[in-house]
Amino acid sequence: MEALCLIVPCYNEEQVLPVTAPLFREKLSELIADGRIAEESRILFVDDGSTDSTWRIICELAEGDSIFEGIALSRNRGHQNALLAGLTDAADHFDITVSIDCDGQDDIDAIDRMLEERKAGAEVVYGVRSERNSDSRLKRCTAQAYYRFLSRMGADVVYNHADYRLLSSCALRELLRYEEVNLYLRGMVPLVGFQSSTVEYVRQERIAGKTHYSLRKMFDLALNGLTGLTVRPMRLILIVGLVLLMGGSAGTIATIVLKAFGLLHDSVWILLAVLVFLSGLHLSATGLLGEYAGKTFLETKRRPRFVISKRTGQVGKER
Q1: 146-202 tens-digit pLDDT
Q2: Each residue of 72-99: b (16+ CB within 10 Å) or e?
């Protein structure tokens, strides 16, 4: 029987944590009672530098029930780094891990089917949303367009999958060998390989509190995914540049010929439009190349991706 660690990243979740923590506990207790996971299974909360009473609540939960454990990062590092911190902390002590959001939107009962897929031999099981009705129309359209765009750019991503997934200890150990500082775990996990499967679920409305994932954070995550998984955008820029070079050369020759025969009287506005277009393209291309250069700069520094400052107990000390 395998020991499971349910990893729950938290950031300023004082409103929702008292509601979802009992739900997580009830599910794990049910799975333990049914003999589907080992009694050593635990729930690990990762406090991502919260400024409210999230850490105090985690400590109270751990003091009241040994199934709860927690670690706190020294400062806010973002959801992906907090999740990685939990995975790293659990890697040597548990047979399988399941990562899930704290807000209760991910269907906790989908873990039952994940365990079935695991029993059938899957090392990785992705939780995939069957529909996105709980999202706004803008978010739904942009998210779906983004997944399709990433796929066309050559990135290996699982459509409509976020960070709700099961990892075996074998798959997790290999994932932790990837040392990127700019994290996009939902794109990195498929690179690990191994036998994988998917489980569909319906994502619900947030149980309490409000989302901390702003438009800026979503944009940063999307950009990390694009620039961290594929270099095809740079190749696309090269192709567009060559096409424009050939088109510009042909246009210049045509303008000279038309002028020579007196067939072109005023080309100022045409030239101005072309200049504005090319300037915008040049700035966009330079910005994209700057993103790749900036990512490379950060990777070469080899800074720690997270620092654990506190813990409710020595996770896995007796295991």
Answers
A1: 666 666 666 667 777 778 999 999 999 999 988 877 777 877 888 888 888 988 888
A2: bbeebbbbbbbbbbbbbbbbebbbbbbb
